[in-house]
């Protein structure tokens, strides 16, 4: 599967280079490793993150697209769905199949049809509209629920 996943990732990278998608840029951390990507997200308009630039890493498993990549923000970000260590918690990056806790439907979790583009669009959407009911950062979720326009949220990224 390694050769097929590398080929698929090369194809997705070439497509993003040829046809960039608004809101983020993506490239390899090291030109010799197709499985480790760096992305920069532009903070979505009309959000507390507007005007910010947020660097993150996507690390793909060798059996991609059967399993999802891991995403970790390198730029500090205060968000209900981003753990304090930067790990992103979003349904489409969760392993495929049934959720043992019953919070997510299988179709909300990873599916092999997802691409870097669909992942990034979902993450940008998550920045604008967090899921504070299933937080990776409980403190940020509490602040978000208490006052989504709280200035302290903006000052923490």
TrEMBL record:
What is the enzyme's main class?
Answer: transferase
Q: Which Pfam families match?
A: UQ_con
Q: In its UniProt record, which GO terms are filed under biological process? A: protein modification by small protein conjugation
* MF terms in GO: ATP binding; ubiquitin conjugating enzyme activity
Enzyme Commission number, as recorded: 2.3.2.23
Does the keyword Acetylation belong to this entry?
no
UBC core domain location is 4-157
Q: What's the domain of life for this entry?
A: Eukaryota
Could you name the active-site residues? Answer: 89 (glycyl thioester intermediate)
Per its record, the protein catalyses:
S-ubiquitinyl-[E1 ubiquitin-activating enzyme]-L-cysteine + [E2 ubiquitin-conjugating enzyme]-L-cysteine = [E1 ubiquitin-activating enzyme]-L-cysteine + S-ubiquitinyl-[E2 ubiquitin-conjugating enzyme]-L-cysteine
**Family the UniProt entry places it in:** Belongs to the ubiquitin-conjugating enzyme family.
Functional summary from the UniProt entry:
Accepts ubiquitin from the E1 complex and catalyzes its covalent attachment to other proteins. In vitro catalyzes 'Lys-48'-, as well as 'Lys-63'-linked polyubiquitination. May be involved in degradation of muscle-specific proteins. Mediates polyubiquitination of CYP3A4.
Protein name as it appears in the record: Ubiquitin-conjugating enzyme E2 G1
């Amino acid at each position: 599967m390694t050769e097929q996943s590398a080929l698929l990732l090369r194809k997705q990278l070439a497509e993003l280079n040829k046809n960039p998608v608004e809101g983020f840029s993506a490239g390899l951390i090291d030109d010799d490793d197709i499985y480790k990507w760096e992305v920069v997200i532009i903070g979505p308009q009309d959000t507390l993150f507007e005007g910010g630039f947020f660097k993150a890493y996507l690390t793909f498993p060798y059996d991609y697209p059967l399993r999802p990549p891991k995403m970790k923000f390198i730029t500090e970000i205060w968000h209900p769905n981003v753990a304090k260590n930067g790990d992103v918690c979003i349904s489409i990056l969760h392993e495929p199949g049934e959720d043992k806790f019953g919070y997510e439907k299988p179709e909300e979790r990873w599916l092999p049809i997802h691409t870097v583009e669909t992942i990034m669009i979902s993450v940008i959407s998550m920045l604008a509209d967090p899921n504070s009911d299933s937080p990776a950062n409980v403190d940020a979720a509490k602040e978000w629920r208490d006052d989504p326009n709280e200035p302290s949220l903006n000052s923490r990224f």
